[in-house]
Design goal:
The protein is about 30% helix and about 10% strand. The protein is built from 13 helices and ten strands. The longest helix is centred in the last third of the chain and has 18 residues. The radius of gyration is 21 Å and the shape is globular. The protein starts with a strand and ends with a helix. The N terminus and C terminus are likely disordered.
């Protein structure tokens, strides 16, 4: 599942103990083995107790330093790791926030424990609670956030290598990222499959949506077995593409941007260690996370290091993911472009759903305020395709 701070419709299953990673062979043409590289690095550092400084590519451990590096010409392959925190401004709850998080509001489902709603064994016996919750938080009822569009901007500028997301809300796709841009580590509502291993009939998003909103338990049209969205439940393996892609992506990463995740669940959390030792890492989150313990920090390995004397590549922006992306965009000289993209895309989503008039009024009112203000989310249903892709199809 995704990150526990995730929504089910923004759900990273990060809130659950993560399922075992499915084994797969390295991507074609890749000779990199991150696990072996990590062990070699560990052995070398233990032998020399961390001797030999690692090259520092940032001229300053700050957001400004990150922006200058991104514009230097040496930063060509950016990987984004994202969790439920990037979707909370869209109205999708995370898992862990006291009072508002998903796990704080599941009493009405009479579950043996909050996590049971995402456990595959419980789901097979009692699918009703999951589909009731899915109806409340189903993809298509929320619009992408500033953070989603910032990643689209990275793609448009030729800088995004891949987005690794724990979320299952499909908002990355709505914003305009394509399947080849995404590794949906905890699956997606985009497709569903029959759970009968002898059948495995596939169903699309419209079919599942019709079943959920008609309050039917989705059953296979061929064998009458239960049909489940292709999200990763506790007790299931991660998609094979997760393993194969990280073997080719992470050794080539020039900058890792981590946004809206607690980095508390494996194997997703371990990805921060799979980039090369000199690769800068930027955390945009409400609190620092993913930090090493003291022993690992002393040895120069492990998680993030923001504050020690040995810190050389990690920077943290503490605040909302939208604010962090806007701040970085401003340092890059992209803020006006980003705000215009969000305004245009939200208006296109509203217009596609018959809300053109209200969208126009909202955009007019936003123009009366501070320049660079981002229009407020109105939580209207959204198509599962970015507006720019719809324009291409037309």
């Amino acid at each position: 599942m995704s990150d526990p701070e995730a929504p089910i419709s923004g759900a990273e299953a990060d809130s659950l103990q993560e399922p075992q990673e499915e084994e797969s062979s390295p991507a074609e043409g890749s000779t990199e083995d991150p696990e072996m590289d990590f062990l070699r690095s560990l052995f070398a550092r233990m032998q020399g107790l961390g001797s030999g400084p690692v090259e520092q590519v940032l001229d300053e451990l700050s957001l400004e330093g990150m922006a200058r590096y991104m514009q230097s010409g040496d930063c060509k392959n950016i990987i984004c790791m994202v969790g439920a925190g990037i979707a909370t401004s869209a109205g999708i709850p995370d898992f862990r926030s006291p009072g508002t998080g998903l796990y704080s509001n599941l009493q009405k489902y009479d579950l043996p424990c909050p996590e049971a709603i995402f456990e595959i064994g419980y789901f097979k016996q009692h699918p009703e609670p999951f589909f009731t919750l899915a109806r409340e938080l189903y993809p298509g009822q929320f619009k992408p956030t500033v953070c989603h569009y910032f990643m689209c901007m990275l793609k448009e500028k030729g800088l995004l290598r891949r987005c690794y997301t724990q979320n299952i809300d499909t908002l990355e796709r709505v914003a305009g990222l394509q399947e080849e841009d995404l590794i949906e580590a905890h699956g997606t509502f985009h497709t569903s499959h029959c759970l009968n291993f002898l059948c495995r009939e596939e169903y699309g998003l419209p079919w599942m949506k019709e079943k959920i909103f008609s309050e039917e338990i989705p059953k296979c049209e061929k064998c009458n077995s239960l049909v489940k969205p292709d999200i990763v439940f506790f007790g299931e393996s991660l998609p094979a593409r997760f393993s194969s892609s990280l073997r080719s992506d992470f050794p080539r990463c020039d900058l890792l941007i981590i946004m809206g995740t607690s980095l508390s669940v494996q194997p997703f959390a371990s990805l921060v260690m799979k980039v090369p030792p000199k690769t800068p890492r930027l955390l945009i989150n409400r609190e620092k996370t993913g930090e090493s313990d003291s022993l690992m920090s002393f040895m120069g390995i492990g998680g993030m290091d923001f504050d020690s004397e040995k810190a050389y590549r990690d920077v943290a922006f503490l605040g909302s993911c939208d604010d962090g992306c806007l701040a970085l965009a401003e340092k890059l000289g992209w803020k006006d472009e980003l705000v215009a993209m969000v305004t245009r895309e939200h208006a296109a989503i509203d217009a596609a759903e018959g809300g053109g008039a209200s969208a126009s009024a909202a955009n007019q009112s936003s123009g009366d305020g501070e320049k660079g203000a981002v229009p407020e989310q109105k939580d209207k249903p959204a198509e599962q395709t970015g507006a720019r892709e719809r324009e291409k199809e037309e």
